[in-house]
Write a structure and sequence with these properties.
This protein has 849 residues and is of the alpha+beta class. The protein is built from 26 helices and 13 strands. Helix content is 59%, strand content 7%.
Length: 849
């Protein structure tokens, strides 16, 4: 249970793997995901490592699979994902996999090449069919006498007098529809108007065999005279990428060619259909196993990549690896190595040997689907140092609660809870879908955070008695306005009188007005009072200060457990104690004043109660307390003592700790044990003291601060860094100033709880009065229709503004309160994360090595 509150204990271990069993052992370690391999060949080039050829073969197989997957997606065939976790294939199976992928790739490439050639031929025949049809129409139109005047520009007048028309040449082809206007202008300019162009659009789009896109084209025919114009026309067609086709001159030949083209198109269409069916069958079969192939290949690649991190002994029979692993999981790792050895058929067992090291281990916090979201919040600030207190367990409660203090509304909290419950109850189905939407994935990973935020918001909404800006009268108000109204207006009153009275200020001093407290939360009658905002401001501001001071004191108390665990008594005496005394004597006293004022002053004395803010300011100025501002007897003396006590804590943190550290350093440097032939020299410690010192050296962590208790400093290892008094003094001064000033700024920062709570309540009230109130103002049938429309608008604005925008704002402010105001009291976050070698990322679809 203790591992929940701090990171796992880690150890550096050495693995001795037989060459024939190394592959299977690493495979088993990847399945359990409990070890992080260290690179023992940092100076060796990647291309010079032992298993680089195997890695390249895996990359080549991965490339072929990506090609197959691309073809499957292009064919709109879904990839079958059964969630199967296939075993890692043996190294000898790599040849079979390579042959399978090579055969599949070549078959698909051959099919694609043949299909492209067939589609190109089919496109040419289709275009020729349209040309023959349109050309016949052009000639039929030219033989029409009504078009003789239009075509007279192509005929020489001297020949017309002789009755012999000229023989004109022509070319026919197909061009992109969007190029027709430019094409026509270019023909007119280059040929100087001595050509005749006719064009017609092809109604159905044609498929480009290279890209598969649908393109729109047009058929054209150009009439000209002479070889010179013919050459010009052909060059222009070539420049505009127009395709020219042979077209017979006589109608009979064109008719016979069209019949032949149609027959060839029918035959080609049948061949294309058979080719596409064969391609679909191949891709359908591949889609059922491509995911399993991907996992196998990438597992193999990950294994060989990991084996490249190992050292190989001189006999080439053993691989040596170094891994970080949790101490509590050593048995699981041993079992995995045993399974890998048995699977490989090796008779020599693999050896796991723990190593002693002074290197800082990685930080590993075990999480589950509930705690992973909160651990991510903490890790986003910084990975915790090794074995220091983990803020995540406390964040599970404090983070949603502080969010709810700013977001307190029963209605909005219920909506948020329902949304989170949907994600929680259907998490298995949603995880199986594996959506690529980054926004949804982020919300889904924080579903339990959102669930707790919604539940806590319902609780704080009950305390505030706020539901969509309206109060709920569940137990009956504890106020009676009749005596107050009689006193202000006189005589009897009715409900109409109260309705007409727009200003209703609750005054508990009037006798009979206040009958008793509301059972839970704020009395609903405050929703009608004109001094509601004044009352809630005072209540929420004091509540924010109380919660903030308690949260900070709790953070300082958690630092004590760090000092005790790392055996740093100096940090306790000259760190924790001055900090907790400083914080408690000033701001803890402020919280006590708030509670004291609430308890000591009733409604009859409330006007005489002194201001706590003025009292707190005068406390620092050592001013004499005026007779009307005294809260209790002996107040001035106690306040002076608390201020002096807080000021006395500053030099303890600022100066005393630095001097003690310097004294300990000099003790280790000048007063060490020196034995020459069994004789103790100078003023060094006795033999008993030396044994105690040696024991303390072994118990002391290599990266601990050089500190022990004040009365009996201990000696660290001889190889110690030089003590720089200036650096230590500056560092301690920065820490002291940051803590002292931070207590003031952090306390003020918690007032955002009050500010955002007030802003959320007021925005909710404005949305109700300016939107929903319009629909409720009418009682007719038309008013019902208007109310339905208004309600939809109200619901959309509520979700968009109050839930999403306001919720995100409260989330970010709660995040800042934890990162800056809470965690900086005990959490350094200067570690590095434990990144185990695991196949889980491959199964999740991320395909990471």
């Amino acid at each position: 249970m203790g591992e929940l509150f701090r990171s796992e204990e880690m150890t550096l271990a050495q693995l001795f793997l037989q060459s024939e069993a190394a592959y299977c052992c690493v495979s088993e370690l990847g399945e359990i995901g409990l070890v992080q391999f260290r690179d023992l060949n940092p100076d060796v080039n990647v291309f010079q490592r032992k298993f680089v050829n195997e890695v390249r073969r895996c990359e080549e197989m991965d490339r072929k699979l990506r090609f197959v997957e691309k073809e499957i997606k292009k064919a709109d065939i879904p990839v079958v994902d059964t969630g199967e976790n296939p075993e890692v294939p043996f190294p000898r199976d790599m040849i079979d996999l390579e042959a399978t992928f090579e055969k599949l790739e070549n078959e698909l490439k051959e099919i694609n090449t043949n299909q492209e050639a067939l589609k190109k031929n089919f496109l040419e025949l289709t275009e020729l069919k349209h040309i023959l049809r349109r050309t016949q129409q052009f000639f039929d139109e030219m033989e029409d006498p009504s078009l003789l005047e239009e075509s007279s520009v192509l005929v020489d007048p001297s020949d017309l007098t002789r009755g012999t028309p000229l023989r004109l040449g022509f070319v026919a082809g197909v061009i992109g529809r969007e190029r027709i206007p430019t094409f026509e202008r270019m023909l007119w300019r280059v040929c100087r108007g001595n050509v005749f162009l006719r064009q017609a659009d092809i109604e159905d789009p044609l498929e480009d065999p290279a890209t598969g896109d649908q393109v729109h084209k047009s058929v054209f025919i150009i009439f000209f005279q002479g070889d010179q114009l013919k050459n010009r026309v052909k060059k222009i067609c070539e420049g505009f990428r127009a395709t020219l086709y042979p077209c017979p001159e006589t109608p009979q030949e064109r008719k016979e060619m069209l019949a032949g083209v149609n027959a060839r198109i029918e035959d080609l269409q049948m061949v294309l259909n058979q080719t596409e069916d064969h391609r679909q069958r191949v891709l359908q079969a591949a889609s059922k196993t491509v995911r399993v192939w991907f996992i196998k290949v990438r597992k193999m690649k990950a294994i060989y990549h990991t084996l490249n991190l190992c050292n190989i002994d001189v006999t080439q029979k053993c691989l040596i690896a170094e891994v970080w692993c949790p101490v509590s999981d050593m048995d699981s790792i041993q079992f995995a190595l045993r399974r890998g050895t048995e699977k490989s058929g090796s008779t020599v067992p693999s050896i796991l040997n723990r190593m002693q090291t002074k290197q800082t281990p990685p930080t590993f916090n075990k999480t589950n689907k509930f705690t992973s979201g909160f651990q991510s919040i903490v890790d986003a600030y910084g990975i915790g140092s090794y074995r220091e207190m983990n803020p995540a367990p406390y964040t599970i409660i404090t983070f949603p609660f502080l969010f709810a203090v700013m977001f307190g509304d029963m209605g909005h909290g219920l909506l948020m809870t329902c949304a989170a419950l949907y994600l929680v109850l259907r998490e298995s189905r949603l995880m199986a879908q594996k959506t690529d939407n980054e926004m949804f994935s982020m919300v889904f990973s924080g579903r339990y955070i959102i669930l707790l935020m919604g539940l806590f918001s319902i609780y704080t909404g009950i305390i505030y008695n706020d539901c969509f800006s309206k109060s709920l009268n569940a137990f009956g108000s504890g106020w009676s306005v009749r005596p107050m109204f009689n006193r202000q207006v006189g005589g009897n009153w009715t409900f109409q009188d109260v309705a007409d009275n727009k200003i209703l200020q609750l005054d508990p001093v009037v006798e009979g007005v206040f009958k008793g407290p509301y059972p839970i939360g704020i009395d609903p009658i405050w929703n009608f009072a004109s001094n509601k905002l004044t009352f809630l401001n005072s209540f929420k501001m004091k509540m924010s200060v109380i919660l903030g001071v308690i949260h900070m004191i709790f953070g300082v108390c958690l630092s004590l457990f760090n000092h005790l665990y790392f055996k740093k008594p100096l940090n306790i005496y000259l760190g924790f104690i001055p900090e907790i005394v400083f914080l408690s004597s000033l701001f803890g006293y402020l919280v006590i004043l708030i509670f004291y004022k609430w308890v000591s002053y009733d409604v009859t004395m409330s006007k005489e109660a002194p201001s706590i803010l003025i009292t707190f300011i005068n406390m620092f100025l050592f001013k004499n307390i005026e007779p009307g501002s005294v809260l209790y007897s002996g107040q001035r003396g106690l306040q002076i003592f608390l201020v002096l006590l807080a000021l006395a804590c500053v030099p303890c943190m600022l100066i005393v700790k630095t001097l003690v550290l310097r004294r300990q350093y000099l003790w280790r440097k000048n007063l060490g044990t020196q034995n020459f032939g069994g004789i103790r020299v100078a003023n060094g410690p006795t033999e008993d003291e030396a044994e105690i010192i040696q024991h303390d050296q072994l118990a002391q962590n290599s990266d601990d601060e050089p500190e022990r208790c004040l009365l009996s400093p201990a000696v660290k290892a001889p190889a110690e860094e030089e003590f720089d008094f200036g650096d230590v003094a500056v560092h301690q001064a920065i820490h002291t100033i940051e803590f002292c000033l931070g207590c003031i700024s952090n306390t003020a920062s918690y007032l955002r709880l009050w500010a955002l709570s007030l802003a959320h309540a007021q925005l909710s009230e404005v949305l109700w009065s300016m939107v929903m109130h319009i629909g409720l103002s009418s009682r007719s049938v038309a008013g019902f229709i208007l109310l339905s429309i208004i309600f939809v608008l109200f619901a959309v604005l509520t979700v968009a503004i109050l839930l999403i925008m306001e919720g995100l704002s409260a989330f970010l402010h709660a995040l800042r309160l934890h990162w800056v105001e809470f965690q900086n009291k005990f959490y350094t976050g200067q570690g590095f994360k434990f990144l185990p070698f695991t196949f889980e990322s491959i199964l999740d679809g991320r395909f990471e090595d």
